[in-house]
């Protein structure tokens, strides 16, 4: 418990930009956890099988893998703050595309492009935290960032799963749900 209290104290001592970044990561983690789970359920509801849903996830991973080094060059040229803003805006547009498109090819393309943009968000992480912290703060800041990212992602998936269960049980109670064939 004293370790948790120590991290809370360290958080209050961090520079403002570092605190805001951690808060942003926490909110993004919860949102992303919810959205990823519900997106997979959405693809399932569109009639896609598990193999296609896996291909969508794979396309995002390939996009991120191919873009990781070029994303680092973008951060060097444009700066972390600019890349964070642009990547966040692009991620919003691509997310809208992933919901609006229903055909396989556009879904795969938006997933691939979202992977590219997520690489930029990932690459900017360490330099941005380094620029917005003192050397004595960095070990706490980096470990806190990792914990916040992991815990909020899991929390988002739990919330998303709970929301899906609530929606499903409400449909069952109203008699609107289609039960799977036995």
From TrEMBL:
Lineage: Bacteria, Bacillati, Chloroflexota, Ktedonobacteria, Thermogemmatisporales
Record field: transmembrane: 20-42, 54-75, 82-101, 107-129, 141-160
Main location: membrane
Membrane association type: Multi-pass membrane protein
Keywords noted in UniProt: Membrane, Transmembrane, Transmembrane helix
Keyword Nucleotide-binding annotated: no
Gene Ontology MF terms in the entry: transmembrane transporter activity
Compartments where found: Cell membrane
GO cellular component: plasma membrane
UniProt-recorded name of the protein: Major facilitator superfamily (MFS) profile domain-containing protein
Chain ranges of the Major facilitator superfamily (MFS) profile domain: 17-182
Domain of life per record: Bacteria
């Amino acid at each position: 418990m004293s370790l948790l209290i120590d991290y809370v104290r360290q958080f209050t001592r961090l520079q403002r930009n570092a605190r805001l970044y951690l808060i942003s990561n926490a909110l993004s983690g919860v949102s992303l956890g919810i959205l990823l789970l519900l997106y997979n359920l959405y693809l399932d509801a569109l009639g896609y099988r598990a193999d296609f849903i896996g291909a969508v996830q794979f396309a995002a991973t390939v996009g991120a893998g191919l873009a990781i080094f070029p994303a680092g060059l973008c951060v060097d040229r444009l700066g972390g703050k600019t890349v964070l803003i642009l990547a966040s805006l692009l991620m919003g547009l691509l997310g809208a595309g992933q919901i609006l498109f229903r055909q396989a090819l556009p879904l795969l393309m938006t997933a691939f492009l979202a992977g590219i943009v997520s690489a930029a968000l990932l690459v900017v992480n360490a330099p941005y935290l380094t620029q917005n912290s003192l050397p004595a703060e960095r070990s706490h800041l980096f470990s806190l960032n990792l914990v916040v990212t992991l815990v909020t992602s899991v929390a988002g998936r739990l919330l998303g799963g709970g929301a899906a269960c609530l929606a499903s049980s409400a449909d069952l109670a109203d008699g609107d749900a289609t039960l799977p064939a036995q």
